[in-house]
Amino acid sequence: MPPETTTRTLTAPAAADSAAADFAAADAAVTDSAAADAAAEAPGHDELRRLEAGLDSLQAVPETPRGAVRRTLDGVVPPILLLIGLIVAWQAYIVIARPRPDLIPGPIDVFGALVSAWSSDRLQIAVLTSLERGGAGFLIAVAIGTPIGLLLAECRPVRRALGPLLSGLQVLPSVAWVPAAIIWFGLTDATVYFVVLMGAVPSIANGLVSGVDQIPPQLRRVGTVLGASRLQMATLVVLPAALPGYFSGLKQGWAFAWRSLMAAEIIAMGGTIGFGLGSMLQQSRELADLSGVLATILVILFVGILVELVIFAPIERRLLRRRGLMAAGLR
Fold first, then answer.
1. Is the pLDDT score of 4 beyond 70?
2. Domain positions in the chain
3. What DSSP character marks residue 288?
4. Which residues contact 174 (CB under 8 A, 6 or more apart)?
5. What is the topology classification, in CATH, of domain 99-330?
6. What does the angle CA 71 – CA 75 – CA 77 come to, to the nearest 5 degrees?
7. What is the pLDDT of residues 131-180, one digit of tens each?
8. Is the pLDDT of residue 45 over 60?
9. How far apart are CA 6 and CA 9, in angstroms?
10. Which pairs with CB-CB distance under 8 Å and at least 24 residues apart come from 227-233?
């Protein structure tokens, strides 16, 4: 073999090894450069994460550790103190002005009327009867008003046709339905329930419509992208998102139901209609017993406040807390 060929044959592997070494060195340099760039950019990524966490903390409602006893006292003590103050002012007026007892009875006379009604079991029967009617009528109104509200919110032609009528029914005093209900159903419990429904259903339906109107349009788009049907969109997306407004409608519906119930019980007496708080109020009026009238009014007011504090207020606080809509001081 010629010397030149031997030299080229021996030199080729050495050149290949040299080229591989140069490539490895270049790759290592590129890797080190990328690592240096990543290390340089790492503080930036950490800063973005800290900024994102800070924005989330601004939206979150800070927890205020309070026990159940403290929350109960915060909700119960202020109304009790106000009630005591009003009773003291009332008694002071009786002592100073000395009005006629048959026109302005004092707190002691009203309390005596309550004791008398309790001793004869009239008060217990009236409270239980009215609560049973009011609760059943309200649940039926929820079952009727919720589908109507969803239909109005999701179907524009139906809303344009039925919306003004429903708003008019909400404005109409429910006591106006009592004479017609007596003619249709007679002196039965159906008359009372009809009046309760006519007072509560429009408020519940309009409350749900108002809640649906406040839903961000992005939620509907997400439901559409995920393939939700029209029924799934209404029940799984729209209704949960509209819960704050819907719950406000439920509270207003209960208020209308309770007032409608009292109006129906005052006017529709006799027959198979049971003895409720409205009937008790009407009997005291017929006997010109102003102490009994005021005592019954206080019981009606107390029952309404009790339902608000025990049932609606805790649910509303929990709902708003989960949505981040309640200030820490109100928890």
1. no
2. 68-98, 99-330
3. T
4. 195, 196, 198, 199, 256, 259, 260, 263, 264
5. MetI-like fold (1.10.3720)
6. 110
7. 999 999 999 999 999 999 888 887 888 888 888 888 888 888 888 899 99
8. no
9. 5
10. 230/154
